[in-house]
Amino acid sequence: MEQSRREESRKTASALTSTTTSEIPASAAPLRRQLSLFPLITATFFMVSGGPYGLEELIQKSGFRDSLLILFFVPFLWSLPTALMLGELSAAIPAEGGFYVWVTRALGPFWGFQEAWLSLAASVFDMAIYPTLFVLYLSRIWPWAGKEHHGIYIGAAMIVLCALWNLCGAKVVGDSSLWMTILLLAPFGVLAVWSLVRGQLPEVGAVPATAGPTDVMGGVLIAMWNYMGWDNASTIAGEVEEPQRTYPRAMLGAVLLVAASYVITVACVARTGIDASQWETGAWVEAASAIATPWLGWCIVVGGMLCGLGMFNALVLSYSRLPAVLAEDGFLPKVFAKRLESNGAPWVAVIALSILWTASLGLSFERLVMIDVLVYGASLVLEFIALAVLRHKEPELVRPFRVPGGTVGAWLLGVAPTVLIVVAFVRNRTEMMDLGKFGQVTSLNVGLIIMVLGVVYYGASKLWRKTTAV
Fold it and tell me: Chain centroid to CA 59: how far?
């Protein structure tokens, strides 16, 4: 029975590479499958989380108790539905390009292109954050790194390093993500155990019984960002071993790993009585030094550097596959589809995106709520729609893993994430984005401009393809 099921899954994956339907992009061509389960889990971990770094503002806004409740329940409303959706679609359609291929197959090339466009556009704003995070923690060890323009030079060097790293192939990136995850989480594991053993710190006293008002909804939004990005792992499906079996297990494993790294660490540190209202970026270092010893604080500093490095490296792996498949389908010049023969790495796409991200370092963009809500949220909703549409459109498609509840369950799965996206949009629709010398503009306008440009580019590319075909 097991052998029969495996054979059927292989036939399904093989069918994806055929040209029997025009809706299957050329990106479904077979590649060398190099990534196994645990490297995929840890690569996804870095695409989404990178550890408890980034939870400081959540703790400050909501306090330890409410933060724990938020970190525990948000995955059920936000991460688990996304992981289930990815599990079904990745197992049924394990093609390079992931969510781009799914949306194209379900809704047509226009919406498929918009899905890829939104992700690549968002990367311009997001990817500059990780070199900045790396420099932020490096400067605590080496103050020179944070002075003048040194941070930009170091960030650019980190981007070059990650580009070279990715040119070594998906297996090298996945295996290194596994080791970096262990090294990054080890200090937090020590901190958690030390906090449990030590308990209440005598020098901080008891936590005040009458704490000030907490911003629970603000905390929920921060938690959403810290649990965001699961679909990034789908773009490398053509390079994953036995994707029909591996993806569902990897997504659920990554959800558990991320949630556990958040909840366990925060719960243990909360027992020490440290004042949550004083938390800000880098507070994990001070907490480790106060609860345990300064050397543990230094280990968390090094972990912060690994967080920035590991997240950027894993996301290069994810994003670089999109220009390659877009080029194969005619939306970008064919040169972007070039791959190294040794490992299939899309070397032109890696280099081009690295240059773009290096140029964005000087813009000093911050992570902005509205852009994430509009860009990431819109692309995620399209993926949930694709899941439900494919249930109607291709009921005979072999689905080694299936979201429970039938067709109704497939439609209902996206309800909770969509509601959270709408709430985030309503709350932050007036958020301003600082463009430095260019002044300020609302993030809503920036997000809408990004969406409109995607429509314009699609129309222009369609015209261009018709012209060149004549």
Answer: 21
